[in-house]
Amino acid sequence: MRVLLVEDDPVLGPELKTELARGGYAVDLVDNGIDAEAAGYEDIYDLAVLDLGLPQRPGLEVLQNWRRRHNALPVLILTARSAWQERVDGFEAGADDYLCKPFHTEELLARMSALLRRVHQRSGSAGLEVEGLRLDEKTQSVIADGGEPVNLTGTEYRLLRYLMHNPGRVLSKLQLVEHLYDDAVENDSNVIEAYVKMLRKKIGRERIETRRGQGYVFRP
Amino acid sequence: MKSIQNRLNGAFVVITLVLCVILWLSYSWFLRQTAYDFVSASLGSEAYVLLKSVEMDDDGGWRINPQYVAPVYEQPMSGHYFQFQVGEESKWHYSRSLWDESIPLEGGKPVGDDGLRLVDKHGRPWLVRSETFTKDGRALRMLLAADVSHIEAGLSRLRWTMMAVVALFLGVMLLAQVLVVRSGLQSLVRVRGQLNRLKEGDIRQLPDADTAEVEPLVTEINYLVQSMEMRLTRSRNALGNLAHAAKTPLTVLDRQIEALAQQAPDRAGPLREQSLQLRELMERELRRARIAGAALPGQRVFLQQEVDKLLRTLRAIYRDRGLAIESDIASGSYFPGERDDLVELLGNLLDNGCKWARRRVSIRGRMDERCLELCVEDDGPGIAPQLRERLLERGARLDESRAGHGLGMSIVGEIVGQYGGRLTLDEAAGGGLRACVMLPRRAGIDLSVRPPTP
User: Fold this and answer.
1) Measured between CB atoms, which of A84, A90, A101 is closest to B247?
2) What is the pLDDT of residues B233-269, one digit of tens each?
3) Which of B368, B343, B389, B378 lies closest to B439, judged by CA?
4) Are residues B278 and B227 in the same domain?
5) B156: helix, coil or strand?
6) Which of B237, B315, B343, B447 is most buried by its number of CB atoms within 10 A?
7) How far apart are CA B257 and CA B264, in angstroms?
8) Rounded to an integer, what distance in angstroms lies between the CA atom of residue B249 and that of residue A158?
9) How many angstroms separate the CA of residue A24 from the nearest CA in chain B?
10) At which of B237, B264, B290 does a domain end?
11) pTM flag (> 0.95)
């Protein structure tokens, strides 16, 4: 899952980026409204965490512009503005969730995964579960068919979560790279093959199908 | 309270009345004087005629030749009298009309010049003129008198007539004055009506005045309303910026504390406590500072629209809870105040409801002549009566695990207080909490005291 993090605070931004990365997200940090809006149009983000008080262009305007151009990118507003009118304005502008500062990282992570589940029409509050395969977001482990939890490495976790959020969809290697890594990391799409291979060992071969020349499909 | 109209009319009545009385008095004095002068003149010419007719009779006495004397002097009590005395003799000669009376030689009230006197003779006013002539080398003193009671009667009749005319005149003038004053004050009366509409939120600015005297007042009021609005917006923005500026570092601090907690939990504990307090204090004060209150006139926020938006927001926030959030707002109900205040008020009430509700939260809005009533009900566990009071207290929390509960309620209380309204908590039909807010529609309606329950 790749996240667009828009935060102008020079301390909070990088720190948050580190923590979100620890939570298994590929994060691109943007610190102003104009760059944020432009980045939002790139079709590589699964979620945006948007601050409202931004230099150059207010966050609310960025969001309104996205929605006006039918950009359905899930947006979680993370702001110091806590008045109800501001929350209403945020949701009316098209936000999917609204979290007030100061906040705890755990809460932000929980809201983010809840939002992602909701976007991909997965109900239930206790983690991600697709046809007997259960992903524990806290421990970053997977349980297959009620068995023992199997630990995943950071990249395996991110790959599996992205696959589970998009079951039945053909996902190209490039697409997977885009959603698993942020801009800072130079990645050869061939590493995906290696990770798919390792993941297949942990959850069973048949769950990830290879489509030659196209990519992979997660079979629920 | 003094009324300009009454004062103008009162002053007019007093001044006109004084002027009329002076006019009336001087006019009747003048008339009387003229009448007396006239009588005096005729008495004077009469005296000369009489002087001519005075002659010495055969035995050396003096008499009047009746041939020359006007018949009125011959008729008893005719109202025209004379008497005379010649030389040093003490004997007075009287006209027949005097019968057995005589004209008083002295006394009476002097009127005008020529030694004219007004004498009261058995209740009738006599005007007496005395003349002294020299006839055949002897002094001849003559007194003439005229009964002027008919003049007095005429004068008094005239006085009453005049009084009636003056009264009529005064009435007409007063009526005219009232009309003039009223039309002159019309623009003030209009401004008063417009001010009421401004207060009720019908209009946001006073329309331009058509009177030069009222125009600066209207301009000034409009300017004040506008600058208050601008100041409110500005301070809101400043607060928003302050909140933003302060909360982000606070978030960073919190993270540092959490990081520290990993290594030295005993050192992080007190820090965390302080940070929490600071955060709550800031949140509370910022929210309080945002309340505009009923200070700003000219506002009317229709409920339905705001409630709809708020419910969309709450449904989004509590999407995972699957709550049924319903609204029942009487059409046309409006909030007599500032939009952000309404949204903050309802947001907190509804948020509270949503936090505690099992399945259902509802909001009901009703408006009558005096006030707007808003009730939010949930089907949660409710609150014990003795604890409800505590919840209304500032920042008191009943359940620490659900953050911000008490703060929300204290903000609600704060807003309600600023609008002179009343907040009550009781049990909903389903056992949950029902929070009702009553807000006066106009300033001056006090709802802060609970009316006796019927």
Assistant:
1) A101
2) 888 778 777 777 788 888 888 888 888 888 888 888 8
3) B368
4) yes
5) helix
6) B343
7) 10
8) 30
9) 19
10) B290
11) no
